[in-house]
Amino acid sequence: MTGTGPLPGGTAGDVPGAAGAEPYRPLPDLRSLHAAIHGDWVVHGRRLQEPAFLAMATFRFGQWAISRQHRWSRAIAGKTYGLLNVFVAGWTRVFIPPQTRIGREFHIVHCEGSISIHPAAVIGERFGVMHNVTIGTNMGPGAPVIGNDVFVGVNSCVLGAIRIGDRVRIGANTAVTTDVPDDCIAVGSPARIMPRLGPLSRGS
Questions:
Q1: Final residue of a domain: which of 60, 93, 126?
Q2: For residues 127 and 147, is the Cβ–Cβ distance under 8 A?
Q3: Checking DSSP bridges between strand 115-117 and strand 94-95, what pairing results, if any?
Q4: The domain containing residue 139 runs over which residues?
Q5: Measured between alpha carbons, how far is 63 from 189 in angstroms, rounded to an integer?
Q6: Any domain includes 1
Q7: In the listed set 34, 65, 93, which residue is the last one of a domain according to the structure?
Q8: Strand, helix or coil for residue 153
Q9: pLDDT tens digit string along 18-48?
Q10: Is the pLDDT of residue 12 over 70?
Q11: What phi-psi label fits residue 105: left (phi over 0), alpha (psi between -120 and 50 degrees) or beta?
Q12: Is 40 part of a structural domain of the chain?
């Protein structure tokens, strides 16, 4: 991940599925689960009934479930998460497996269509995503590694073992299958990469 330091929830060498990697335990206790859910609640407008918040709260519970140290506890929590996710994912159409590594302030801007993220994807902090977006593989192994302060527009795909840098904007209806450097804009299908014309600011 370009310029982002350690991966969310692990160390710089903890690539999901890598041989010898430590088990991924992103939320090891109830305190960390509460903090993560509270953060998602703040990001999504402090509304309990917001579908995006409910999708993220379910995802965080799944992360807590896979973080259980004991097999029986992990099994019970995992089955509870699985049952809950059947209803929540079916309603919100947000599909984010708990193995996905996501940084702080993950923001589902419009929860009005499908969002699908591969479990091997790694996403940095302050990531914004619109509806009808897929982040996953591209006819082979490997999923995207995405930096900080990235926004993905509606009806877009980010596919394959690629790296998306910091402060990148991916426009609507864009298909990204190649690396995108820091401070760039990707538009079109296939994506054309263009440098940003000004500094990053909120809403840009």
A1: 93
A2: no
A3: parallel
A4: 100-204
A5: 33
A6: no
A7: 93
A8: coil
A9: 545 678 899 999 999 999 999 999 999 999 8
A10: no
A11: left
A12: yes
Pairing of strands 133-136, 115-117: parallel
- Can you give the length of the chain in residues? 204
The pTM score is 0.85
Q: How many structural domains are present in the chain?
A: 2
Bridge partner list, 136: 159
Residues 107 and 204 in one domain: yes
Rounded CA separation 84/62 (Å): 10
pLDDT digits (tens, 9 = 90+) for 93-123: 999 999 999 999 999 998 988 999 999 999 9
Question: What's the CATH code of the domain at 178?
Answer: 2.160.10.10
Cα 101 from chain centre: 6
CB 173 within 8 A of CB 190: no
Distance of alpha carbon 153 from alpha carbon 104, whole angstroms: 19
Specify the pairing of strand 184-187 against strand 192-195.
Answer: antiparallel
Name the phi and psi angles at 160, rounded to 5.
Answer: 100, 180
Provide CB contacts within 8 A for 198, sequence distance 6+. Answer: 204
DSSP annotation of 88: H
Q: Please indicate, yes or no, if residue 12 is contained in any of the structural domains.
A: no
Paired tokens of 27: 């939320």
